[in-house]
Amino acid sequence: MQYWLFKSEPFKWSWEMQKAKGEEGEPWDGVRNYQARNNMRAMQIGDQGFFYHSNEGKEIVGIVEVCALAHPDPTTDDERWECVDIKAVKDVPKPVTLAAVKAEPRLENMALVTSMRLSVQPVTEEEWKIVCEMGGVDP
DNA sequence: GCCAACGTTGGC
DNA sequence: GCCAACGTTGGC
Predict the structure, then answer these.
(1) In this protein, which residues make up the domain named EVE (predicted)?
(2) Beta-strand relationship, A3-8 and A48-53
(3) Strands A82-97, A120-123: parallel, antiparallel or unpaired by DSSP?
């Protein structure tokens, strides 16, 4: 089991929209970055991830689960790009802001801080626990 | 809306 | 294969 973080601009695809999809899930398409794609290829069914709102909010608002392995991105004919499907699991009761992450010394090496522009990031188990704690997420 | 950081592209 | 130019992302 591994942990990840998915970034989205709420205007394009928000947590509300993700939740509305329910169990069906939604392809995380439109990624045009090799590192982000490689991360998705490494994902397994059942992996957990944070859902982060960039630009507007700048906070971790939800928890998602990978429900389909990497497959060709339906939004392009370019076979280089792939995506996984994710489904909403639950809200983060107290959204964890970027400022809060930056202010937490134990999270100083988190990709959210060090690789700001990467849209699909790995999260370590330790980081996962700390953020869940900060967000008031039930274990 | 601005601008810095970074990834990608394309000419050589 | 290098590197400059360009486009995009995302925090502020």
Answers:
(1) 2-134
(2) parallel
(3) unpaired
pLDDT tens-digit profile of A16-40? 999 999 999 999 999 999 999 999 9
User: Domains of chain A, with CATH numbers?
Assistant: 3-135 (3.10.590.10)
Q: Which tops the pLDDT comparison, A25 or A80?
A: A25
Rounded Cα gap, residues A131 and A135, in angstroms: 6
A115: the nucleotide nearest its CA (via C1') is B6
What's the CA–C1' distance between A44 and B1, in Å? 40
CA of A34 to C1' of C2 (A): 21
Q: Of all nucleotides in the shown strands, which has a C1' nearest the CA of A117? A: C9
Quick check: A139 pLDDT over 80? no
Average pLDDT over residues A101-121: 93
Q: Could you check: is the Cβ of residue A113 within 7 Å of any atom of nucleic acid strand B?
A: no
CA to C1' distance (Å), from A6 to C11: 17
d(CA A123, CA A79): 27
Q: Give the pLDDT confidence score for residue A44 in this predicted structure.
A: 97
